[in-house]
């Protein structure tokens, strides 16, 4: 066994250029398999994170993206009260108004996504957890207190390690007291870390309107989501006198679960597509190996004759050629995994690109596929070599 | 050592055309004999050599080597017999160019079940044939005579009872050829059975016995001298 590997290595090293060219095919194939697997893994994880933030039981209601909808559709607390009465599938409502404002503390300032919310916000958007301090309470809302819960991004930028709770920050030149701050989230969350939450009525006053653009509704269960959507649509339609077509045109009732399903399907398609590309490049690498092994058999007919004359069995010869093919694939596979890893690290540097996790599983899959390719593509040439008649092989010039 | 009885070999060239390369050949070779097989080209000596060397099987008759019937062996057994019992020396040396002298010599041990120190054994035998200084040389860095010595060392490495040489001096000048033959004579004195195929009368007359083939038949069996004891 050890001898066979030695024989194979010697013969591969004896034909450096030929071996290197074959390796190139395997390396590209394995590298692309590694990248494909990492990209699909990364896409899945990225998606899951976004969904986790949105929550699967949540329906978002907001004006559609058309100019007409943006102008004519506004919501108020009256709408929320109406929906509370008309939607038995709803558990919680969380209206919010948001605007980009500059927050300052001392000399530091940072642009923040400021959102006016009600206490239920923390029950609906579960990934926005208060790490230290308090959430915005009912009395904060009722008393219109100028208090703020800030995201970890703001903590870092404004306070730089100093204590946070009880400090006064200024948002759009109005002073707020920080009552809590939130956990740092992993990257790619829908709601980022540069976020400040303040009581809804305070935000409405700053904007100068009692209305809000949109709200989230939490369904009683994931199964209740389709009913909830119908109930909301029907209630808003009746209240505003819309035809079904108008309602469809103006109001977006958006369900993360359905989107999740669609996105999963899309990612699945992308993964299959990428997999096919990776598979094709491995196939081409495999054909390359088969070609080289066939050429190698033809070139070494005399060598095979000599080996048989001194006592090599058909199995010995076959084994030697298979070991050569597999050795090519193992070496190519290892370099390919390294190249794929390097490719991943370069891709990750692209702006807006997702994280590409490199797992042991990915490497193992790529390597074993590569070895399988070596076995399969080495088999035929090896059998051909093993079956050669020793006398004819010895006479071969 | 060797019992050949009514051995024949027919090659079927096409469905209708066949060629009888050996016709009813019978002879025996005793342990420790030095036999030359002679004949013009096409007389069947190469075919006989292939069969004696277990590279091919006869189409008729019987070939027993050391008491074992070779003509009924399967490919795996033939390979093992070639490895254990027979050492080959060819006209064109048939060394592997990418291997050094000692690696060429050690080649048969790769396929042997015996556990030996391969390199040590190979170097030992290279010293025996006078190539102790060329252990790491490649075949291309050696003269014809040196290459044939490496080939002889390779034939000896598994310590076979029978050495088969097919025109071993054919690619060498006269003096070198005689030196190579001297090695065979020395091996013969050490107890190896030696069969040499040649078409040079002087080379053929160096053994104990000449078998002459003509047109696939054994036409003469000349005993030249008694075996050295």
Provide keyphrases for this structure.
heterodimer, A: 397 residues, alpha+beta, six-stranded mixed β-barrel, 15 helices, 10 strands, 60% helix, 17% strand, elongated, B: 229 residues, alpha/beta, Rossmann fold, six-stranded mixed β-sheet, four-stranded antiparallel β-sheet, 32% helix, globular
Plain-language structure description:
The complex is a heterodimer of chains A (about 400) and B (about 230). By secondary structure, chain A is an alpha+beta fold. Chain A has helices spanning about 1-15, 15-55, 65-70, 75-85, 120-125, 140, 150-160, 200-205, 225-240, 245-250, 255-300, 300-310, 315-350, 360-385, 390-395, and strands at about 60-65, 90-105, 110-115, 130-135, 145-150, 170, 175-180, 195-200, 215-220, 250-255. Chain A contains 15 helices and ten strands. In chain A, strand 2 and strand 3 (about 110-115) form a beta hairpin. Chain A is elongated. Chain B is α/β, with parallel strands linked by helices. Chain B has a single domain, classed as 3-Layer(aba) Sandwich (Rossmann fold). Helix content of chain B is about 30%, strand content about 30%. Chain B has helices at about 45-50, 75-85, 100-110, 120-130, 145-155, 175-190, 200-205, and strands at about 1-10, 20-30, 35-40, 60-65, 70, 85-90, 160-165, 195, 210-215, 215-225. Chain B has a six-stranded mixed beta sheet, with helices on both faces. In chain B, strands 2-1-4-5 form a four-stranded antiparallel beta sheet, covered by helices on one side. In chain B, a hairpin with a 2-residue loop joins strand 4 and strand 5 (about 70). In chain B, helix 3 crosses helix 4 (about 120-130) and helix 4 crosses helix 5. Chain B starts with a strand and ends in a 6-residue tail after the last strand. The mean pLDDT of chain B is about 90. The interface of A and B includes residues 302, 307, 310, 312 and 394 of A.
